[in-house]
Specification:
Largest sheet: 4 strands, antiparallel
Number of strands: 4
Radius of gyration: 55 Å
Shape: rod-shaped
Number of helices: 3
Amino acid sequence: MKIKLNLIPPYKKAEIKQSMRLRSVLRWEIEISAIFLIFFGLIYCTEYISKINLSAYVVKKQNINSGQMAEFNKYELKIKDINARFSEIDKIQKGQFYWTNFFNKFNTDVTDGIEIENLASRNYSIIVVGKAATRENLIAFRDGLQKNGCFSNVTLPLSYLVSKTDIVFQMDFILKNDCLKK
């Protein structure tokens, strides 16, 4: 059997209880403070790591974008060059004269009995030298050129209409610019 003797006075007992409570409260405060410090430390570390990752991501994205932009700019320059070439080709084609249009229209007006020996042009002015079997053939040829919408100012001097057969003639007319374009 054990006997406990309590020789501590009651006011000391109260002080001991109070100091035990104070130690307990202090220990809880220290533990809670430590938990808060650890929590805030983790938050700070997470934020720091996130900033590092974000800056690395931004740098990586800028490098990728700069590479893509360089490639994009390269293709854009190629496209501009191709468009410039196409516009030059288009200008050349628009300025191109298609003499086949003239010869097709002129050929429809050349009738039997008309022989063309020489054909010359200068700035849309056409000079035709030829031989007509009869005066009627020559007049029909002149009238056909006058009626044709591609030719204007058809000039045949009257001196060529004096002979009735085997007429050597020279005729001038102006070719309209629209007839040479497609």
